[in-house]
Amino acid sequence: MRYQIRQKIFSLRDNFTIKDQFGNNCYQVTGKIMALGDKLYFNDMEGNNLIYIEQKLWRLLAEYNMFENDEKIATVKRKFSFRPRFDITSKFGEITLDGNYWQHEFSIKRENYTMADVSKKWFSLSDTYGIEVYDTENTEFILALAIVIDQVLHDNDR
């Protein structure tokens, strides 16, 4: 299944809707205004929180935790290196990214299985990403993880 994430470049908050390949609204992401660090709520279209994303403060390199029903389901840490690298631990196992993160052309993998492919669309008035999800049982987690990677790499660009 394909999804599209469109994030406004000039915005005081992180608020956006995720659409499926047919243009239907599937998920909403909202951020808290005036919060220290990123705090994002990944919700269904009825407003039910599915995943809560929180940035850990006072870290040399970015670190985010993801929660589902108050249970931590993943931690994403940026590793110290010239090229962006991540340490992603989750209840789904060890997750790796393969590709060009700066250009948002990468795959999300668990072991040797590709869970999803992420690709940025160019020439848009907003940051728009296409995500092809292969592991449909974990769609929400995969979409939320793609958002966290974007936050780590490009949050200061906005």
Helix content: 10-25%
Gyration radius (Cα, Å) is 14 Å
The main β sheet shows up as: 12 strands, antiparallel, barrel
Poorly predicted runs of 5 or more residues? 8-12
**Mean of pLDDT:** 84
| DSSP strand content | over 45%
Q: Provide a count of the helices.
A: 1
The largest sheet has its strands arranged as: 1-2-3-4-5-6-7-8-9-10-11-12
Please provide the ordered H/E string of secondary-structure elements: EEEEEEEEEEEEH
The name of the CATH superfamily reads LURP1-related
CATH architecture: Beta Barrel
**What structural class do you assign from the helix and strand content?**
mainly beta
The CATH topology annotation reads as Porin
Number of strands: 12
The separation of the N and C termini measures 28 Å
Q: Please report the first level of CATH classification, the CATH class.
A: Mainly Beta
- Counted up, domains total 1
